[in-house]
Structure formats: structure tokens, C-alpha cells
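Appendix B, Record 12. Input sequence as logged:
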Amino acid sequence: MESGTQNSGGRAIARVILAALAGIVLALALVQLAEAAGESTGWRLRIKDAAVVRGDAVLLGEIADPVGPLDPALWQKLAASRLWESPPEGRPVSMTKPKLQQAMAAYAGELSALCIYPASITLQRGGAILYEDDLRSLVVKTLTPHLGRLPGEASFSDFRLPASVFLNHSGQNVELEGPFDLVPGRCTLRLAVKEMDGVVVRRLTGTVFVDIWANVPTASSPMNRGDILSPGQITFERKNLAHLREAPWDGKGGPWRVVRPIGAGQTIHVGDLGVVPAVTRGATVTMLYEGKNFRLAIPGEAMADAAIGESVAVRNLQSKKQVYGVVRDGLTVVVR
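Logged structural output:
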């Protein structure tokens, strides 16, 4: 029994030694290839932060991309180099930057010094992976048809998406879920990993910034609160609606009165304008009392601004009493 245990332990130790020797031999071979190319200082290898591996060993080409003038023939040889043992199938496995650097030093020798390392790397054996560029293409393809419902010239910028998404097998896919209620500014995205039958495996989120360029009305000169808006004070400029504090005025309707100051060149927003009142505070109006069999007109004073059809407080100039009435026109308030 003890003899069998010792033999088993000896074989395990032998495998470890052989693996270490293989790593050393590989490291030397990689360095020789790099030196033979005479380009060891003109290129680098950028290690990915996530990758899918296929076989029982991690290949250099599965976890790295060349950066700089690396000869394609040399990269083909380097890419096929076997590194450490692949993770078990079933779920992704992560390595921190220090662990990754140690592994590369052990299996790639001096070549490890030519690598650009991420903060960590996540590896999955089998399946597939979508990178941020893939997800960005998915978002653009899905949402572009919906831009036509927006005013002006719309486009996407400042994508904030997962760096990578692992799929357990080739039958899974990632879809962008609606509703697609696009508005100027930052919009939330909902991503779903689905099986072939449509069952959602997991969900992720991201955002995209929607830029909408359109001609909007702006003030050609400063305007103060209470000013009546005239055509000569309005010009149109091309601006990004995503950076406006609220919806711009559409340039229609009126007459309008400015309800808050607007600087020269500033956008005229919906909230900057109010309907020009038919009566103004302090104005003398006719308080008209109408009944079935009588009609009485008494001079009064409007206590606030009001448009036609709005209710306003008025003070009887004879009795000094205050009542409410509805503005009929610029001179008359009907008291019921």
C-alpha cells in the first residue's frame, strides 16, 4: 500500500518537473524567435482582459494581440505557443495582474517583459465571448432605425458597455431589449443573454449618449423678465439638444412674454416664455356682473396678470372688496 502511494507521488512530482522543463524550453524558444526577428524593441504583446481558450492548454494567440511592427510569420509561430493548463470547463476563471505576470514569466521567459498587462484576465474554456466593440456594433445596429423619430440630426457617442460578455456555447446570443425610448442625452441600455429558445440566462446594463443637433431659437439680444418677445429678437442656431437644460421653444404661437432673463445667444426654452396677459397687475378693468335679468359694470383693479379665459382676483374700486372673475378681454373681467 505504501509502495503504491509512493509511486503515485513520484509520478505526480515527475509531471510537475516535466511541465516546468517544458515551460523553460518554451520560454527559451520564444526568446530566440523574437531575437531572430530583430524586432524585440519595436513591438509589444497586449494581453486581453478576457478570452476564450479551446484546448487543454492556453495558447499565446488566444490571450494576446500584437501591437506594432511584428512580422506576421513570427506572430503565427508565437501565437501557437502553449502556455499553462486551461481552466476546467463550466465557468470563467480570473487571474490578477501579479499572478498573470508570474505565469507569463514562467512560461514565456524574457518575452513576458514585452507584454502589456491588464489589471486582471478572465479565461473561459469553450463557448464564446463578445467584446465591447461587438456590443457597440449591436447597439448601433439595433437603435439606428429608431433615430428617425427624433428631431434634427441624431447620432451616438460615449458608449458605456461591459468590457466583455461570456457565452456558455455558440447557441447563446446577446440582444438589446426594448422599449427603445431614445431622448437627447444619456440613455440606459438593457442587454440580455438568451438561449436559442429565447430564455434569458442573465441581463446586463449599459448606457449610450444620444446627440441631437437641430436649429433652435436663440436670443439675438438680451431680454429681461416681462419683455414682449418680438421677431427681431429671435435668431436660429444649430445646437445639441442633449446639452440643453430643457426643451427648446419651437418658434411658434404667441404672443409671448419673457418670464425669466435670457442672455444674448442663449437658447429660448419653453419655460422661458409665458402667454402675454390680457390684463396686467394694477390695470383698471371693468368688473362685469351678469345675471338672468341684470347687467352691472363697476370699475375694478386687477390684482395679478391673467390671460383671456383665466381666473384673476380683482378689487372693487368703490367698495374695496376683492372678488374673482374670468378675463373676457383686455378690459373686462366677468364676475359670476
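Residues 1-10, 12-21 have pLDDT under 50 and may be disordered.
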